[in-house]
Design goal:
Elements lengths: L8 E5 L4 H12 L3 E6 L14 H13 L4 E5 L5 H15 L4 E4 L13 H22 L8 E5 L2 H4 L10 H25 L5 E7 L10 H7 L1 H5 L6 H8 L12 H12 L10 E4 L3 H4 L7
């Protein structure tokens, strides 16, 4: 621990597990206090399990083990008033917010049953959730604060998440992540006079539940699906490696959190409006999408 975030307060969405938990733990290790939120219930169109209250409790425990302070609240990023209440609780406890990590995201794959609500829910969480998170945070941010948005390298590459086999939810995910790029660049100009910076991190495959689920395994092994078999992690994981230029199936949540800690701290004080990929060379390997 170098204490690079000592005295700062980080507000993190999607913090119950995966990348969100990694951000909370990494920032607490560097001395930050944490305001952690997650929906902790299912969204009907999303086929894989979302986080639970017990997952959020585990994040709080992990932060506490590091000696960190945390305010953990159940909140849906689609509902601005729920985020506003969570922020109010955190500000009451800690007095301010210095770091915002708009991380919550879902990928509602069709699983053979396309439904327009999959697009609605994906865009509501992955895009509106970002807008809501920033909106409730900005009034509390002192000059020199940092906002970090989770994007997606796959969202940058046509023919991946917007592959017709992914259905409306995949299209909504990819569309949302592409709009986030423009949002970050536009907001950076409006926040710059106060020395507040905003940047997006665009991961490749990350070893989280969004990747490790039956629906995603089926996407990577359509041959097994066509044969009436359920693809497993062991079936699909060798093909995960195809997406990256480096010979890796995925990165770990901690790899994303390492960059977020840097962007949250004072050493990145003049970095803003950037789209930073942690992608093992994915975008350079597939600039127009696999098979195009």
């Amino acid at each position: 621990m170098t204490g690079s975030l000592t005295g700062k307060v980080a507000f993190i969405t999607g913090a119950a597990r995966g990348q969100g938990r990694a951000h909370a733990v990494a920032m607490a290790r560097e001395g930050a206090d944490i305001i952690a939120v997650d929906i902790c219930r299912q969204i009907e169109s999303n086929p894989y399990p979302l986080a639970t209250p017990e997952d959020l409790d585990e994040t709080a425990r992990a932060v506490g083990e590091l000696g960190g302070r945390i305010v953990a609240r159940i909140a849906d990023v689609r509902e601005r008033h729920e985020l506003r209440d969570a922020v109010a609780a955190g500000v009451t406890e800690f007095g301010k917010i210095d770091i915002v990590v708009a991380n919550a995201g879902i990928l509602p794959m069709a699983m053979g049953k396309p439904d327009p609500m999959q697009f609605v829910d994906a865009s509501d969480v992955d895009l509106l959730g970002v807008l809501n998170t920033v909106a409730v945070s900005v009034p509390h941010l002192p000059d020199g604060s940092s906002i970090i948005v989770t994007g997606s390298t796959a969202g940058m590459i046509r023919g991946t998440t917007d592959n017709p086999n992914m259905g409306p939810g995949g299209a909504g995910y990819g569309w949302s992540k592409r709009v986030v790029i423009e949002y970050v660049e536009e907001m950076s100009l409006h926040l710059a006079p106060r020395m507040i910076r905003i940047n997006a991190i665009h991961p490749t495959n990350v070893n989280t539940d969004l990747l490790q689920n039956d629906g995603m395994y089926s996407m990577f092994r359509p041959d097994l699906t066509a044969a009436g078999k359920q693809a497993t992690r062991e079936d699909a994981e060798p093909l995960f490696t195809i997406f990256q230029a480096m010979p890796i199936p995925y990165v770990e949540p901690e790899d994303i959190a390492n960059l977020a800690v840097f962007l949250a701290g004072d050493k990145s004080r003049y970095i803003t409006g950037q789209q930073i990929r942690v992608d093992g060379g994915s975008l350079l390997k597939w600039p127009n999408g696999p098979g195009r």
